[in-house]
């Protein structure tokens, strides 16, 4: 999804059942209207109306991250989700991916637009909003957000999904391996339904079925749980509009408040300046809200990851607050602010702001990586070794001397919930988990292996003899580490989150840190 956050000053969002009124503030990151309006909705005759004729429709099969991304990309391109495709769709796609990890879905996405109407730039604010604006841009944005509902796109919207939910990832994979999809089959028809049923038989798998439908702008039935109903809805979507059909909003058009002459004049910002500063504000808001949601949902593992996310959020909040303070302080009605842009940042009235790309990179690293403190030792004096590295990427040395034989990673190493490698060992093959070898002992290299389960947020210690990769090896119970905020290492006796496992001749200590 390569669309840029700077793709334009007008952003289109697909609608839910609730249609926010024109003039309502909008949280562009959360995708929700704000309970505040800066002016009363104008009459339709006072809006700028232009034709917008587009018709796009496509079937998809959704069964993994790549196929899901194809759907998300098409929705952005066809349904008007213009802003923040890289960021805004990621959260949605991730949530849907988790829900479809054990499913195979036949999905139809169709949109047909006829026109769009938008508010004019000379639209006046209400007396209340004008009073707030007079107190400064920062206060105004705090009250009404950075964007507002500026109009609607009219037409028809049709999204249909036939979901086959399997009991496990393994059975979904077995079904997919047997299903020979072709362009002529993939549709809501008797042919596709027969092919899917036949594949369930040949792959010796079972599934449950449910149907999802989201339709706007045309009359149709309420679909049940079969292909015939979905085919009927699709046929209704394809019918030409009747002469008496009222235009139906299928997407809201969002614009920055600076689009209004009254607001841009108060801030002293020219159109070119808005195209520079608005994306900066949006990205800082995106970073801050992404970090806060991750923290609120307790998805962090250990104090290191939690602190890193808080630090990035604080940096984003400071940058956003700093820019708004500059704009408020330099509030020159009718005058022009000094905004300069170069390769590494933007200067506003002499105050320097770096581009947020490094901040976003730091956030992505913090979201992906957490730290585990570990110690692997032997009870019988055999030689130990490891290929683990510390937080700076330096090799962790195995100690074999009179004081003991151990791999001391108490200061921590980076780990992730990534599924890379989950098909290389029978203990994790086809599961939502990965493994890492913390260390080995003896000439026969008995391994202390760590298994991280992404879905459950757990860690499990295993003992694996050479050539034995089956799940009947020694191991402890899986223990939850997601949501733990401990900062102590695995050797700290006051650390209540430390884990110890005695596996054969190996003793393993682990703790989120």
Characterise the protein shown here:
This protein is of the alpha+beta class. It has eleven helices and 21 strands. The longest helix is centred in the middle third of the chain and has 27 residues. The two termini are 34 Å apart.
What would the average pLDDT be, to the nearest integer?
Answer: 81
Q: Beta-strand level of the residues, as a percent range? A: 25-35%
Low-confidence stretches: 1-11, 80-95
Using DSSP, what is the number of strands? 21
The oligomeric state is single chain
Overall structural class, as computed from helix and strand content, comes to alpha+beta
Tell me, briefly, the overall form.
flat
Largest sheet: number of strands, sense, barrel closure: 8 strands, antiparallel
Give the helix level as a range of percent: 25-40%
The DSSP helix count reads: 11
Distance between the termini: 34 Å
Radius of gyration: 28 Å
Strand and helix layout:
Elements: E1 11-14, E2 24-27, E3 32-37, E4 48-62, H1 65-79, H2 85-99, E5 103-118, H3 127-134, H4 137-144, E6 147-166, H5 169-178, H6 190-202, E7 207-216, H7 227-238, E8 249-256, H8 261-267, H9 271-296, H10 303-329, E9 339-341, E10 345-348, E11 351-354, H11 357-368, E12 370-378, E13 384-385, E14 398-401, E15 404-415, E16 433-441, E17 446-453, E18 458-464, E19 479-480, E20 499-503, E21 506-512
Antiparallel strand pairs: 1-8, 2-3, 2-6, 4-5, 5-6, 6-7, 6-8, 9-10, 10-11, 12-15, 12-21, 13-16, 14-15, 16-17, 17-18, 18-19, 20-21
């Amino acid at each position: 999804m390569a669309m840029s956050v700077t793709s334009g000053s007008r952003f289109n969002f697909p609608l839910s059942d609730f249609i926010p009124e024109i003039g309502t503030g909008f949280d562009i990151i959360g995708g929700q209207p704000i309970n505040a309006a800066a002016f009363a909705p104008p009459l339709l005759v006072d809006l700028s109306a232009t034709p917008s004729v587009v018709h796009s429709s496509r079937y998809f099969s959704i069964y993994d991250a790549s196929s899901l991304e194809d759907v998300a990309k098409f929705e952005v391109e066809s349904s008007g989700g213009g802003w923040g495709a890289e960021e805004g769709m990621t959260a949605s796609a991730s949530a849907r991916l988790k829900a479809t990890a054990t499913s195979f879905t036949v999905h139809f996405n169709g949109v047909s637009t006829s026109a769009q109407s938008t508010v004019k730039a000379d639209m006046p604010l209400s007396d209340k909003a004008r009073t707030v604006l007079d107190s400064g841009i920062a206060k105004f944005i705090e009250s009404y957000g950075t964007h507002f509902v500026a109009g609607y796109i009219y037409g028809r919207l049709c999204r249909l999904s036939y979901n086959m939910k399997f009991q496990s990832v393994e059975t979904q994979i077995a079904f997919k391996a047997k299903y020979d999809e072709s362009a002529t089959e993939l549709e809501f028809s008797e042919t596709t339904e027969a092919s899917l049923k036949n594949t369930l038989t040949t792959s010796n798998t079972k599934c449950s079925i449910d149907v999802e439908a989201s339709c706007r702008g045309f009359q149709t039935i309420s679909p049940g749980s079969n292909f015939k109903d979905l085919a009927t809805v699709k046929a209704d979507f394809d019918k030409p509009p009747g002469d008496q059909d009222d235009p139906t909003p299928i997407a809201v058009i969002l614009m920055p408040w600076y689009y209004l002459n009254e607001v841009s004049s108060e801030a002293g910002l020219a159109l070119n300046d808005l195209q520079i500063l608005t994306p900066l504000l949006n990205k800082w808001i995106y970073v801050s809200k992404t970090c806060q949601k991750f923290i609120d949902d307790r998805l962090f593992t250990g104090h290191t990851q939690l602190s890193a996310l808080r630090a990035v959020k604080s940096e984003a909040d400071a940058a956003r607050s700093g820019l708004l303070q500059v704009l408020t302080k330099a509030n020159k009605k009718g005058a022009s602010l000094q905004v300069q842009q170069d390769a590494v940042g933007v200067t506003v009235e002499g105050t320097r702001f770096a581009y947020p790309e490094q901040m976003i990179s730091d956030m992505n690293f913090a979201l992906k990586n957490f730290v585990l403190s570990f110690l692997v030792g032997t009870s019988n004096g055999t030689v130990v070794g490891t290929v683990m590295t510390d937080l700076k990427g330096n090799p962790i040395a195995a100690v074999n001397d009179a004081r003991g034989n151990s791999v001391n990673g108490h200061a921590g190493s980076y780990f992730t919930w990534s599924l890379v490698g989950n098909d290389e060992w029978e203990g994790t093959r086809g599961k939502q988990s990965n493994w890492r070898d913390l260390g080995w002992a003896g000439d026969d290299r008995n391994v202390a292996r760590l298994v991280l389960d992404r879905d459950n947020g757990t860690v499990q210690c295993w003992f694996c003899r050479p050539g034995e990769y089956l799940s009947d090896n020694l191991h402890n119970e899986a223990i939850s580490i997601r949501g733990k905020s401990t900062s102590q290492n695995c050797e700290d006796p006051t650390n209540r989150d430390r884990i110890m496992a005695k596996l054969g001749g190996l003793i393993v200590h682990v703790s989120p840190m």
